[in-house]
User: Fold this.
Amino acid sequence: MNRKAGIAAHIVMGIVLGLSPFAGGSVAQAATGTTVEGLPPVITQYGAVQGSLSADGSVRIWLGLPYAAPPVGERRWKAPQPHEPWNGILNARSFGSPCMQMGAMYGPPPEGKAWGISNVEVFGKPVGSEDCLTLNIWRPNSEDRDLPVLLFVHGGSNVAGYSGDPMYDGAKLAATARVVVVTINYRLGIFGWFTHPALQGPDPLSNSGNFGNLDIIQSLRFVQSNATAFGGDPGNVTLMGQSAGAINVYSLMASKLADGLFQKAIVLSGLIGSGAKEKDYSFANDLTAQLAIQDGLAATPEAATKVLAKKGAPWVRQYLLSRTSNRILDALHRSPSLRKPPPPFGDGVVIAADMQADFDKGRFMHVPRQADSRKGGHCPDGVADSGGNY
Assistant:
């Protein structure tokens, strides 16, 4: 997608979701919220959380809720795990950190700065954190129960994006449609889709390399466990994605791991597709060689490959886990061939081995759905209608 088309898609998303600042109201105020005495804490599976009200008092807001344990240290490149319970009341009045990425048009601003012109300060530079698996919730300020739930997955080519983008502020949609709106962070790029022979272990989910998809599944599990506490209906969850987020929705429609976690789907400008896991092994070996060159272990890719082979898989595993996220992103940025990690892998565990074939043969989740295929998109037969079973 070129820059002009990307900007147009971003504007379209604002119109579709009804969240654009041009639609009325103050996005910045709604995102921040205002503490109102008497708004009770909500009890989630991990502990109590304290939200706030939008500036006009029409929407209750909870920001930066952890839905999984931080994927750091030994949990890097592993399937998401449940978060540890906390004591006391979690202050849910600010967005969590963006997931680690190279600064770009759809990416976040520098830490501590407002969204806007400051974003350009981190273009082409690492920004965000690996400790990023949080979600945000907006719902009408009422005592209504069993509200429909909409979980939105942002786009950004699966390498960029942030649920704290003002374009994705859910206050207006929650108030006007009377729904519970959920937006999520999920691991991106090399941290969201990566597999290396040295990282393979006994867990087939972690071996899949599809960590971004697994994060989305984990967020849906959080919704299933906690929707009732926020006035939502866990039996009426719509999964909605835009661009790369739409690709991820398609992936979950063909994943047995997502069975029962959502009942409807909305796909905006998404494609159906996956890559071969073996292809990423080549990518992963090239990345490891580039890191070795940067660290002075070798002078050329060929020499680095020999050094790493001599070191052995256990050493390579610890080496990869010990590199900082900034160091890894810098290695990717230095080599043009490494700047775009492979797509989600058709591993047969998290994602269907041949997702396109499964869709063509009707082997996917039979839920009511709405698909919007803009220029360059593709909707398979039987998916692009707006509802019913098939």
